[in-house]
Amino acid sequence: MTTKSDQSPTPDGSPEQSGEAIRQAAAATRRQVRREQRALLLRTPGFIVGSVIVLFWILTAVFPELFTVWGPKETVVDDAGQTLLRTPPNSTAWFGTDRLARDVYSRVVHGSRPILIAAPAATLIAAFIGSLLGLITGYFRGWVDEIVSRLLEAILSIPSILLAIVIVFTFGATNPVIIGTIGFLFIPPIARTVRAATLAEAQLDYVTAARMRGERSLFIISREIFPNVIGVVIVEVTVRLGYAIFTLATLAFLGLSGGNVTDPNWGVDVAQNYQQIVASVWWPTVFPALAIGILVIGVNLIADSIEKVLKS
Amino acid sequence: MRRFVGRRLLLSLLTLVIILVLITMIPNVAPGDPARKIAGGTASPERLAAVTESLGLDKPVGEQLVDVFSSVFRFDFGESFTRPGTSVTSLVLTALWNSTKLVVYALLLVLPLAIAGGLLAAYKRDTWLDRTIVNTGVALSSVPEFVIGVLFLALLAVPFSFFKVLANPPPDAGILTQMQFLLLPALTVLTVYFGYIARITRASTITALDADYTRTAFMRGLTTGQVFRKHVLRNSLVPTVAVVGTQLGYLFGGMVGLELIYNYPGLGRLIFDAVDAADYPLLRGGVLTVAIIYMFATLGADLLIAWMNPRARLSLSEAG
Predict the structure, then answer these.
(1) In this structure, are residues A171 and B31 in contact, taking their beta carbons and an 8 Å threshold?
(2) Which of B142, B147, B287 has the CB atom closest to A289's CB atom?
(3) Do A290 and B151 touch (CB under 8 A)?
(4) What is the ipTM of this complex?
(5) Residue B290: its chain A contacts at CB < 8 A?
(6) Which of A142, A196, B183, B299 has the least CB density, counted as fewest CB within 10 Å?
């Protein structure tokens, strides 16, 4: 993956020729390091397994019809035209059918879409605002930093799922509200991590040198510090993506999904069916539950591998 | 040390104040009229006025804040909407007691196992055993607890009648019966938290094992057991204590899905029901209780760490 910051800044005819040369050399070294890290990452078993899992679910989210025969809301009938109610896994319905005779397999395949739209969207919002806050507070420090840090700490001190429940209930369970809420709740952890990294970077000589050259703060933050903390941002964002899926699934399980109850959604399907487990009808619950687990584990394997590679 | 404690206490109080302000603001910024939502569309104007008054929404925000602050110091959050005549405090205390039972039970299971797992993984670093412990733990700790909960229901509760589907024991049950009913939720917490705690313990144990003082201790001829007891554990358990401290708030209030599945009346369940019924006084009491628990848990963890490791006193007061 080639990021924008990999490209060296184009010489814009500034009088700081030597500074520009140093910067280009630094950018070249950085590109070299990035290339080696990418190569290392592609050899990490955790990264490969995680990517295969996540890519599979992305594929089902984009083209669910490729994988299914029955629609997610369709009533399944066998060859004799008999409606299959609460039927265990069989050759017609691989994961069985639920209490409304719908194909559990089809619902699992179609269920990846809502979560794979909402989770990355929420994470991107949090990543953008959180990184910005972290860079600014970590670089300038002072009273703004004090106030922002206290606020973030307060938000962090309540389990995020509780705050999410309260906010989503207050503003209504619609997709924009749910995405916005999770985006908002994940700002503090990202901001805190980026702030700590920025704080460490801002005390290094190259930042002091830039300041002595008379560079503007905006330039120092975006061109000098940001490229050096981007690794931290990437790790944190991948970790948060896992948590976003976690939180979205839990909210959906609690009945806050933004969609209709009949829409395929893993968390909703678990909530709708888990009480039948005691009657040994386990398949409408266990398969969507496993889907949630597998997706979260996949994302976390990726996050974990990236972190290890960046640290080595 | 005294300066550190003072500073840390002040920070905790500040956090609590911010949470109080946030919680007070919720009904004020909620779209539509929360009183109408609670009272119902067909409520009489008198009923609507009464609900508005009990929410405090007839007063300016400043006055509402004063009311909320005084309610916290008296630990009196008024009456529940959904259960008229019942004080929020008594409902919260019952739920808190239930949550405490589950949390203590789960921690008693998970702490020894996870710490042992972490120490073992560190000691057998980079072997298959280490990788198995770390990878299984990481994988399981990233899965929502309600997922593990339903899987346990299907795998354990249905085939074996020893495991109870519902966690709430009969009212006059003895401690062993209660433990039997609570076993599945506790095992779920164990599954979710094992990897988390084991990983932290492993990382800090490796740091301690690599330290010069540990090498010196080995060279002095101490046995592995002695080195672990005297030199490694004291340092490696510090981050573990910190993690347990920061997770306590989540254990008390964040297990909503788990408490729903096993139908267990803990704090998470209480808050969820309160939100569902738009019972603002109950919601306020529940969320504030969780926040206070979190505050004391992190405070306790920080103090314990400062006591165990003098260096932390300095860095913590500098980090601000």
Answers:
(1) yes
(2) B147
(3) yes
(4) 0.85
(5) 158-159, 162
(6) A142
Q: Which residues of B touch A246 (CB under 8 A)?
A: 142-144
Q: Helix, strand or coil for residue B105?
A: helix
CATH 3.40.50.12500 fits A112-263, yes or no: no
- Residue-wise pLDDT tens digits, A88-118: 998 888 999 999 989 999 999 999 999 999 9
Cross-chain Cβ contact B153/A290 below 8 Å: no
- Asked whether residue A4 carries a pLDDT value surpassing 80, the answer given is no
pLDDT of residue A245 exceeding 80: yes
Task: Find the closest chain A residue to B153 by CA distance.
Answer: A277
**Average pLDDT of chain B, as a whole number:** 84
pTM score of the predicted model:
0.87
Residues 6+ apart with CB under 8 A from A273: A98, A99, A281, A284, A285
What residues 96-135 of chain B have any CB closer than 8 A to a CB of chain A? 135
**B15 to A292: CB separation less than 8 angstroms, yes or no:** no
> Per-residue pLDDT averaged across A228-241, rounded?
92
The answer to whether A57 touches A115, Cβ cutoff 8 Å, is no
Average the pLDDT over B52-56 and give the result. 76
Contacts A–B by Cβ distance under 8 A: 137
Which of left, alpha, beta for B143 (phi over 0: left; psi -120 to 50: alpha)?
beta
pLDDT digits (tens, 9 = 90+) for A184-194: 999 999 999 99
Which domains are present in chain B? Answer: 2-73 (no CATH), 89-319 (1.10.3720.10)
Mean residue pLDDT of chain A comes to 88
Q: Tell whether the model's pLDDT for residue B53 goes beyond 90.
A: no
Q: For chain A, give every domain's residue range.
A: 112-263
Selection from A293, A296, A298, A291 nearest residue A111 by Cα: A291
B295 touching A, CB under 8 A? yes
Rounded to the nearest angstrom, the minimum Cα separation between A277 and chain B is 6
